[in-house]
Design brief:
By secondary structure, the chain is mainly alpha-helical. The chain has one domain: Glycerate kinase, MOFRL-like N-terminal domain (Rossmann fold), CATH 3.40.50. The protein has 4 helices and 2 strands; from the N terminus they run ββαααα. The chain has a two-stranded parallel sheet.
Length: 97
């Protein structure tokens, strides 16, 4: 589970790994949370079903940059879109994609 930094998450009766990431800015912490989450899926293979919920903030908190990019560059470009005043979440997600 990836949650925003500062959130106090506890789910009774479940053995969940909880990773924190940043929102709305992408950071190295977001990349690490995504990598750890994917590593956690290691035991699963072909034929296994995995349920994934990506909700509000997912484009910032669950980030795996393409080769040649890093979290800092994605954050810089995302911040430009957000600071421009005209960028809505759809445009921001298009840039992040």
């Amino acid at each position: 589970m990836v949650v925003p930094e500062g959130e106090d998450i506890w789910v009774e009766g479940h053995d969940l790994e909880v990773y924190t990431a940043t929102h709305p800015d992408v950071s190295q912490k977001s990349v690490e949370a995504a990598q750890l989450s994917i590593e956690h899926l290691g035991p699963f293979g072909e034929g296994d079903d995995v349920l994934v919920l990506i909700s509000g903030g997912g484009s910032a908190m669950f980030e795996l940059p393409a080769q040649g990019l890093d979290a800092e560059r994605i954050m810089e470009v995302s911040r430009c879109v957000m600071d421009a005043g005209g960028g809505d979440i759809y445009e921001l997600n298009a840039v992040r994609a």
